From TrEMBL:
It is a multi-pass membrane protein. The lineage of its organism: Eukaryota, Viridiplantae, Streptophyta, Embryophyta, Tracheophyta. It comes from Glycine max (Soybean). It is found in: Endoplasmic reticulum membrane. The keyword Transferase does not apply. GO terms for biological process: response to bacterium. Its main location: endoplasmic reticulum. This is Reticulon-like protein. Keywords: Endoplasmic reticulum, Membrane, Transmembrane, Transmembrane helix. The keyword Glycoprotein does not apply. InterPro entries: Reticulon (IPR003388), Reticulon-like (IPR045064).
Length: 204
């Protein structure tokens, strides 16, 4: 596979700060995210620290630091602590609302196809995905899942970017096998649908 067919992972991730951190181009940011996630996971999962207590203590510490900094700056004629404008812009809210609208419309479209169109294959896919999520949730709690997600997001993209040709080759083989099995299941399901409709007509 030539370089012309390679996917730019950095471009797919948006070519911004997040892409630099995930691909370890900004290694300081990546290390900061990894250390912060590991520290929080250890505090809440291993040390038994309470989340609300942690947030309250952090906010209390910040308020105390800012208060004494402002007092000292007033007494010593020093500049006040540089605090940014703590407000959310309308543009940010609009972007979040647009993204949320897209996800909600997709979910409603899936629900419509299952309930109204009676898409059996889509229903089976949704049931399978929900079962996998339920099974994974029974193995790990929510915080551990988030921590695992952080670890995977800091490892899988950079590994794929490095070994993209080998990974694409293996995924192509796996995709072919899945497509073959899917077509078999699809044909079996479709062959049973007319039989079900004929039975309903006989009952009527």
């Amino acid at each position: 596979m030539g370089d012309s067919n390679r996917i730019s992972v950095h471009r797919v991730l948006g070519e911004g700060l997040v892409a630099d951190v995930v691909l370890w181009k900004n290694w300081r940011g990546a290390v900061a995210v990894l250390v912060s996630a590991t520290t929080l996971w250890y505090l809440f999962e291993r040390a038994g620290y309470n989340f609300l207590s942690f947030v309250a203590n952090v906010v209390l510490l910040l308020v105390a630091i800012l208060f004494f900094w402002a007092k000292a700056a007033n007494l010593l004629n020093r500049p006040l602590p540089p605090l940014p404008d703590l407000e959310i812009s309308e543009e940010t809210i609009a972007r979040v609302a647009d993204a949320l609208q897209i996800w909600l419309n997709r979910a409603l479209s899936v629900a419509h196809d299952i309930a109204i169109e009676r898409n059996l294959l889509l229903c089976l896919q949704v049931v399978g995905v929900l079962w996998v999520i339920s099974y994974i949730g029974s193995l790990f709690n929510f915080l551990t899942l988030i921590y695992i997600g952080v670890l995977l997001s800091l490892s899988l993209p950079v590994l794929y970017d490095k070994y993209q040709d080998q990974v694409d080759g293996r995924l192509g083989v796996i995709h072919g096998v899945i497509q073959t099995q899917y077509k078999k299941i699809h044909s079996i399901v479709l062959s049973k649908i007319p039989k079900l409709s004929n039975k309903e007509k006989k009952v009527q």
